[in-house]
Amino acid sequence: MVKRTHGLLWAAAWLAVLLASGSAARATTLVAGGNYAGQNLANEVHKNEDLHDIILTGANLTGIDLRGSNLTDALLGGALLVGADLRGADFTGASAPGANWTNADLRNGVFTGVDFSGGNLSNTDLRNANLNGASFLGANLTGARTSGASFNGFTVLPAGFNTTGMVFVPEGATAQLVLAGLGVLAALPRRARSIR
Hints:
Layout: H1 2-21, E1 150-151, E2 167-168, H2 173-181
């Protein structure tokens, strides 16, 4: 009994040291529509969470793991997302002017209509991401990997940006892809299949 108690006390002391040093995993409870502006959420894990309409303006999200999460219409202006893991996350309609995404992994994410203006996206991984209608006005995309990423006529890219390897989605094609995914196109008469 004495040995067991001693072991538990030692484990509790070690946990206290880890928590005090910040080395132990910690996570803030995030909720959709919640306001976390300016908070330090660095290195937290929030995979596959519904965080639509969340306010993360000016927050420190360095190294955060938001894989597969729903951040539609999120406010991220001036946020630090350096080295964040955002693979497969949905940021549709989010506003992130001036945010720092350096070295972030955005592969397979949905960034339809996102405002990246004035942001730093240097060395980000945007491969196979949906960038339809996103605005990169004044953004830094130096070293960004974009092969397979989709963009359309509403996407605003920096002047001279090289779109080699990216997929241009003509107007109306997105609706066709959605309908095809639902199996609706096969049911339409041939002349109604072309959506303009």
